[in-house]
Each structure stands twice: as C-alpha cells, then as structure tokens.
C-alpha cells in the first residue's frame, strides 16, 4: 500500500518535465504574441525592406535586432513565427475540441442506445478510418474551394481547416467512448438510475461521461500533435492558411521558395519550431497515456 | 472459411458503395456541372439541352445508377484542368507513384526489421535507447519537413542529388520506368527515403514489440534449455513468428503509403498521382478528386481483403475461430 502511495507522488521523468515546460512556454508565447512580438507582420509600417534577408544572429552578417533573421520583405522572423505559431495552435486545439465533442456525443449515444443507431455510427466510422486524415482533409478543402470560391475559402480558412481535420478524427473518440459506455451501462448504478426514471440524456451526461473522460483527455493530447501536423501539411501543400494570414505550415511553404537562393532560415526556422512543438506534445501525451491508461490503443 | 471470406466481401462492398456515393455527390453537387462545361455566354436553351444531354434531368436514383455503370466501365469523367479523361491521367501517373511506394517499402523493411530486432534483444542498451529517441523525433517530424531538409542538404548544399522530378524515364509501352537510367535512379533516392522514414518507425516498433512477446514465450525458453545456439533461436525460431504480423501490417500500410505519397510527391514535384491530386485540390478539379478517392478506396479495400484472406490461409487457428 505504501509503495502505491509513493508511486502516486513520483515525479515524471526528466524528459517529460522538459517537454512540459517547453509546452507551457510555447503556449504562453502563443497567447501573448501581440504583446511580446517585436513587430506586427501584418502592419507594413512596423518593418522595412532595408532589413530584408538578414541571416540569423549566429551567422556572419547577422543582426542582434533579429534573432532568427528576416524574410524577403524585411520582417523579423521571430515575430512572423510567433504569429504563425498562434494560428497553428488555435487550429490544432479547435480541431481536437470539435473532434472530441462529435466523437464523445456520437460514441456515448451509440453505446447507450445500441441497435440501429450504433450500427450506423460504427459503420460510418469504419469507412472513415480506412482513409488517412490528410486525404480526407484535402478532399474537404478541395470541395470547399469548388463550392465557395477562393475568396470565401481564404476568409474562412481556419474554420474550414478545423472542419476538414475533425471530419476524420472523431472516430477514435467515438470508438473509445462507445466501448466504455457499453461497460458502464450494465453496472448497477446505471440500472438503478434507469429504474428511478432518470432521462437518458441525464444518465449519459452525469453517470457515463465522467467515467470515460480520462481516456478522452489522453486521446485528445496525442491527437493534438496529429492535428497540428495535419494543419501544417495542408498549409504546406497550399490547401490551408493563406499567405496573408500564415500558420507555421504556410511559412514553411513560403520559405521553400527561397531554399535554392541560400535563404534557408526562412523555411527551416518555422519548421524547427513546428517540430519542437509537436515533439513536446507527443512526449507529454505518451507519458499521460502510460500513466493513466496503459491499455488505451491509439494509432 | 467461406463465412469469413463472405463477411469480408460484404464489408468491402459496403465500403465501396459508400465511397462511390461520396464520389457521386462530389460529381453531381459540388459546383454546377452545366456551368462548368457550357461555353461562355450560352443561352438558357443551350444550358437546358446540355442538362438533358448529361442526364441531369433524370431522378437521382437513375443518375446514381448511371454513375455506377460508368465507373464500372472505367469512365471517370473529364478533368476540368487538363480536358482529358481522368482515367487516362491516373493511369499515366500510376507507374511513378508505384515505383516510389515499392522502393520506399523495401527500404523501410530493410532498415526497420534489423533495427527492431536490435532494440528487442537489448532493450536497455545504449543503441536501443538511441533508436527509441530518434524514432520519437521521427514521429514528430512531418514528412514535408524531412523532405525539405534532405533537399537542403543533398540537393542545395552538396549538389549530389536532384531535388525534383523523375529524371529520364524509359517507356516500356505500358509502363514508364525510372529504374533503368542513372538519372532516374538518382531522382528516386531522396523521395523514397522521405517516404520510407514515415513507415520505418512503425515497422521498427512493431518488430520490437512482437519480438519481445515471442522471446518470452515457452518454446523459446525451451529452445534455450535445449542448448540451441542463440543465432538459431533468434534468427530462425523467434524471427519467423515475429514477421507474420509485420507482413500483414506492411501490406495494410501500402494503402497509407499511397496516400502519404501525396505529400512526398508534392515536395519533390514527383509526377505521380499524388501530385496530380494536390494540384487538383488547388484548381479545384472535382472529377480528378472524386476519381482519386475512388481509386484509393478500391486500393484499400483490395489490399485489406487480400491480407485478411491470405492470413486465414496461412494461420490455421483463425479458421476455427469464428
């Protein structure tokens, strides 16, 4: 018993602590970007063409004013990346929240009521999981483009991206929640709740959902890394955030064009930030999974 | 046996019906087919005539039936961008994608299996820890960033390898191959490494966990007790049973690889189906998108079915379970 208590207060390994700190710092940077960023990339008067194409500070010709160098328009890369980071995280979190809401709702309804609702939801889920998220998201993006026209799409890009990613990602939550609610429903306390005539909605919300939330949180953390990557990939392929309102993926796509002229930092710096962000989320997510729910299968 | 196969078939048909329905909805309802095909400044009468000619005045059920009929005959409509039949476009680009996917699969197996075995045999050794941390970074590294860094190092700085295209190809009549020319092979190196890395981690982790499972089983302990050589136990007894699931997963992953080739092909401007698809998203070229969806759906279903059925043949235990 005592060993168990000690196990509970054991600190996570150093790598997880570092990842956690990195994650907190990144989140704070993203939240307070407008206050800390040296310039506003969308405000033309805050930067000047004179400063264009300056390399990062650790290279020859670097300028201490621009830690990571400047892009082809003379914008400070630190500021550009911070604003991009903000958008990437916003879309990632948005997609995870939407996917989790849809998944938890459909999964608990399917598990609780069973029968035809269950069959339909799970069949749709089966078909969706056979397709990779990136493919489905690209299709949704293409359809949105054809249906709404390029201008609307570029205005509503964050919303479309969140939808495009969530379309495929809710399945994991639905499957887990469905399984758990089918277990819970046979427990005595749920039967008792049914006997005293509580409405189904209340039983699902108050009795079943609290029991599945820890699994949902773990999936959500691991999923966040995937959602951020998917968004970055879509933007890199030109099917995501427009250049006027760039995410990290868009910045890497723009930087890609300068790769051959030796201006490698314009692409590599945002890419490095993206990898660090995703790595930190993955490390923390893996730890949470092992800690709270070792049996949880996530792909 | 027949029961399993028919249940699988039914599921496969179900998936294909769903995919076809989505493709139909895309063809029919995304954008207006008439306004996309009619000449500029056409009168209402001309539009109506075209509507009738395209069969858009019939009931939805009939239209869907006709659509399925056309698809079964390989008629997937005309690309809005290239003004060519979509089937021809896809077939012309199929060899490029398949060659890339095949080389990437071989690469990831050739590297993933040995690395997985090493980290299973000595789970706490320095080498396996190193492998573990590198994989975590590998998982967090998006495919396009890997490709970008490879281009930066090997194409821009060292100038060893080309950064885009397929190089020279040899036309075999039915198949354009890049395997037979020096520039074709050189062009293949960077894209196939990029695509293989995506799959390498998965194979490594799988081999590792399977190997650890197998090594703790009774027959391996018995083999040690009999005094058989380590080489024989690891190389023959353990590895064989480890590889069964690896083969399955590799088969199933080929579908995923084809989809992920979209990203790799775009980074390296590799003229395969993936690049066709990315360009179609930007255009947007709905017939190409719908046709690609149908194609990938068919690939997934076929590969899944073949793997499942093969497995029941190979592993007799699965036949008796229901």
Could you characterize the architecture of this molecule?
The complex is a heterodimer of chains A (299) and B (322). With 299 residues, chain A is mostly helical. Chain A has a domain at 88-292: MetI-like (MetI-like fold), CATH 1.10.3720. Helices cover 72% and strands 0% of the residues of chain A. Chain A has 12 helices and no strands. Chain A has helices at residues 2-9, 14-31, 33-36, 77-113, 115-129, 133-148, 150-155, 157-185, 188-195, 200-236, 248-256, 265-292. In chain A, α4 runs antiparallel to α5 (115-129), α4 packs antiparallel against α10 (200-236) and α11 packs antiparallel against α12. Chain A starts with a helix and ends in a 7-residue tail after the last helix. The mean pLDDT of chain A is 84. In chain B, α1 (2-29) runs antiparallel to α12. Chain B has helices at 2-29, 33-37, 44-53, 60-72, 86-121, 126-140, 143-157, 182-215, 218-225, 230-267, 273-282, 286-314, 317-320; strands at 170-171, 176-177. The radius of gyration of chain B is 24 Å and the shape is globular. Chain B is 76% helix and 1% strand. The N and C termini of chain B lie close together (9 Å). Chain B has 322 residues and is an all-alpha fold. Chain A binds chain B through residues 123-124, 126-127, 130-132, 134-135, 138-139, 141-143, 145-147, 225, 229, 232-233, 236-239, 252, 256, 259-260, 262, 264, 267-268, 271, 274-275, 278-279, 282-283, 286, and chain B through 11, 14-15, 18-19, 26, 30-31, 136-137, 139-145, 148-149, 151-152, 156, 163, 255-256, 259-260, 262-263, 266, 277-278, 280-282, 284-286, 289, 293, 296-297, 300-301, 304.
Summarize the structure.
Chain A has helices spanning 2-9, 14-31, 33-36, 77-113, 115-129, 133-148, 150-155, 157-185, 188-195, 200-236, 248-256, 265-292. Chain A is mainly α and 299 residues long. Chain A has a domain at 88-292: MetI-like fold.
